[in-house]
Amino acid sequence: MGLTHQSTGNAVVDSELHITRSLPDDKIIALAGNPNVGKSTVFNELTGMNQHTGNWPGKTVTNAQGKYIHNDKNFILVDIPGTYSLMANSVEEEVARDFICFGGADATVVVTDATCLERNLNLVLQVLEITKNVVVCVNLIDEANRKKIKIDLDELSLQLGVPVVGTSARAGKGLDALMDEVYQVAFGVTKTYHVPLMYDEKLEEGIRLLLPAVHEAVSDKINARWVCLKLLDFDVKLHETLTEFLEFDLLENAEFAAKLQEARALIATENSEELRDTIVAQIVNHAETIYKKCVTLQDKQYNARDRKIDKILTSRRTGIPIMILLLGIIFWLTITGANYPSDLISTFLFWIEDKLNALFVFWNAPAWLQGVLISGMYRTLAWVVSVMLPPMAIFFPLFTLLEDLGYLPRIAFNMDKLFKKACAHGKQALTMCMGFGCNACGVIGCRIIDSPRERLIATLTNNFVPCNGRFPTLIAIITMFFAGVVAGPLQSIWSTLLLTGVILLGIAMTLFISKLLSKTILKGIPSSFALELPPYRKPQIGKVIVRSIFDRTLFVLGRAVAVAAPAGLIIWIFSNITIGDCSILAHCTNFLDPFARIIGLDGVILMAFLLGFPANEIVVPIIIMSYMAAGSMVEFDNLQQLHQLFVDNGWTWITAICTMLFSLFHFPCGTTCWTIKKETGSWKWTAVSFLLPTLVGITVCFIVANGARLLSLLC
Predict the structure, then answer these.
(1) How far apart are CA 441 and CA 434, in angstroms?
(2) How far apart are CA 481 and CA 632, in angstroms?
(3) Which CATH number do you get for residue 291?
(4) Cβ(128)–Cβ(162) under 8 Å?
(5) Closest C-alpha among 308, 299, 300, 291 to residue 536
(6) Of 107-121, 303-317, 416-430, 488-502, which has the strongest mean pLDDT?
């Protein structure tokens, strides 16, 4: 993380993480917890809208920070990554551990799930080994009551030696009590008394051997006993971070290095795996002991309903068909629901364009300036917003509802075997699903994959599923050339089936390319992972809609708009500056036409995809503009007129299919490429992510186009 002695305490919140203390006695609170325990809900309920996000210093892992006031004191809440352990097997775990250790937090709140407390206690015990300033939040207490799980919070507090508060964050219950306890711990009013977890005799003797020297070196800056344990654990990354934090290397002291070797010889272990197994076993056993003392199951079949549902949703026979059906329903709702609002937004934005044009005429502005700003940049932005916003505003909430319900981990479970056969990680199923909304978001989601090799595979193949920006092109072509075989209300259903088929083709190609990469440039054995299937929960529809719109829809739209404005400028220049008798755009399309014809397209279509690099939504408008030589992007009143324009310019069903295939398999948009560069830190892998789907698209289109031509000749 790049933490140093100067970046701890006040410094850490003033520089590295850009958290500002308004007053000297403002308190920094770390919010930790396993995934799916309601940690984000606690964070959102406490901080409201007074929050912002960024990246951890030197990491691509997102942090969320928010403020709240309690008892007239300011508290800055830092939502650290959700993790099952602090053993630092992933970037997220490393970030969570390092902030708790070195981040200067005044207290740490560990959020747990009341319905599966035993597993959650493993993380609680690990946090308590690092710091004693801990408050345990037992969330989802209402669900535990519904399932007849009785938790003795007082006994749990006694066993852990720290305050324990029961909450139901969704309903806002228990949060005042939680803030009270956080206040007491952060300001030192409540004194915690956690008894250190004791390990086997040899390990404890090794710790005792190192403890005096370590305590002298670290003083009160960090828990000396825990540092001893980590040094014995061969934790190289922690040793590096500890060296930065202390500004000297403990192992440079010859006497200390000798003691460490003596301690490691004493515990008779040659590597960290064996020692970690011993440590983990003790933590798990202790967690089980505490759980048995504090929790009573009045109904041992409390999760029987979830198991019955899982027998259907995760079955080999029904799991994947149901998943495909749900995918189709989401697409159908997106297709049918986005048309009307898209027309309204388009009408409004282009009404504004008319007013802007009138204003420029009133000002006697130069024609070229009006063309650049209005016909170029503004019109492109209007297109992106009107085409992109409605489907995202429908798709993201629906997707988030499935996530809130607890279904997405079931998708990963169903797809795990397929990705294992492709020598990829099962979690790639989740990142692939995120790519349906936005490939850039899907790439960011690849952070959940621990293995660097498998994370890179997921990143490089995320573009093989279409994002919201490509849906309008696919839907328009399906409606114009293929949906007409079915009339009436069934037309939208037929369009959905065809679109779902295209999506399944993208998924199949994702699996194929993943396996190809695993057998060639990214060789390796797929790693296993423990997938938690959270309990099914009633989604909070209102909060889901608000969260999905602000956190996803507007975020993605903002990034698309940022790259669309320069694209509008380039498009206008290409279409309005002439060389000889033709515009630059016409020269480019003529140059590309011979190659494009070979793969079933034409020069106009291929050029539209190239100019659509900043935002896929503008591909069809560029095609229309080029065919009409309009000089700026235009729109037809209906798809029948558009279909006639395409047919008049040589489109056949082969052209339509190849355009759909190239839309599915072509280079990522500008936003996604930039995200890949940030996530991988490499221009090489960004170039691979650009070339890989493009070569696949060219190859597939070539086979389809020339295969169809050959069949037509034979017939």
Answers:
(1) 6
(2) 25
(3) 1.10.287
(4) yes
(5) 308
(6) 107-121
Contacts of residue 23, defined as CB under 8 A and 6 or more positions apart, other chains included, come to 74
Q: Within 13 Å, how many C-alpha atoms sit on residue 288's CB side?
A: 6
Which domain covers residue 434, as residue numbers? 319-714
φ/ψ region of 629 (left if φ > 0, alpha if ψ in -120 to 50, else beta) reads left
- Give residue for tokens 């937004």: 345
Domain membership of residue 487 (yes or no) is yes
- In-domain check, residue 192: no
Coil vs helix vs strand at 81: coil
Largest CA distance in the chain: 89
State in Å, rounded, how far the first CA of the chain is from the last one.
Answer: 66
Q: Are residues 527 and 588 in the same domain?
A: yes
Contact 36, 532 (CB under 8 A): yes
Asked if residue 167 and residue 206 are part of one domain, the reply reads no
Does 178 share its domain with 206?
no
For 643-698, write each residue's pLDDT tens digit: 888 888 999 999 999 999 999 999 998 888 988 998 888 999 999 999 999 999 99
Q: Residue with structure tokens 């898209």?
A: 342
CATH (domain of 76): 3.40.50.300
- Domain boundary, last residue among 127, 159, 186: 186
Contact 412, 427 (CB under 8 A): yes
Q: Which burial class, exposed, middle or buried, applies to 663 when counting CB atoms under 10 A from its CB (0-12, 13-18, 19+)?
A: buried
What is the Cα–Cα distance from 574 to 376, expressed in whole angstroms? 10
Identify whether the C-beta of residue 112 lies closer than 8 Å to the C-beta of residue 156: no
Which are the contacts of 638, defined by CB distance < 8 A and separation ≥ 6?
none
The residue assigned the tokens 């960011």 is: 444
Neighbours of 204 (CB within 10 A): 14
Q: For 588-642, give the DSSP string.
A: HHHHHHHHHHHTT--HHHHHHHHHTSS-GGGHHHHHHHHHHT-SS----SSHHHH
305: in domain: no
Q: Strand pairing of 73-79 and 27-33?
A: parallel
Token look-up 């806002």 returns 172
**Contacts (Cβ under 8 Å, ≥6 apart) of 349:** 382, 385, 386
Where are the strands (E) in 261-326, listed by range? 295-297
Residue 104 near residue 28, CB atoms below 8 Å: yes
- The verdict on 535 and 577 lying in the same domain is yes
Between CA 152 and CA 295 the distance in angstroms is 6
Please indicate, yes or no, whether residues 132 and 26 belong to a single structural domain of this protein: yes
Shared domain for 228 and 178, answered yes or no, is no
Distance CA 206, CA 244 (A): 25
Judge contact between 324 and 318, C-beta under 8 A: no
Domain boundary pick from 227, 262, 297 = 297
Total residue length of the chain? 715
The answer to whether 113 and 139 have CB atoms below 8 angstroms apart is: yes
Q: What are phi and psi of 80, to 5 degrees?
A: -80, 160
Q: How many domains does the chain have?
A: 3
3-state SS assignment for residue 244: helix
- Return left, alpha or beta for 684; rule: phi > 0 is left, psi -120 to 50 is alpha, else beta: alpha
- Evaluate whether residue 546 is within a structural domain: yes
Name the pTM for this structure: 0.69
Pairwise CA distance, residues 439 & 431, whole Å: 9
Residues 334 and 232 in one domain: no
Distance CA 192, CA 184 (A): 10
pLDDT digits (tens, 9 = 90+) for 165-206: 999 988 889 999 999 999 999 998 988 887 788 888 888 888
Mean pLDDT of the chain: 82
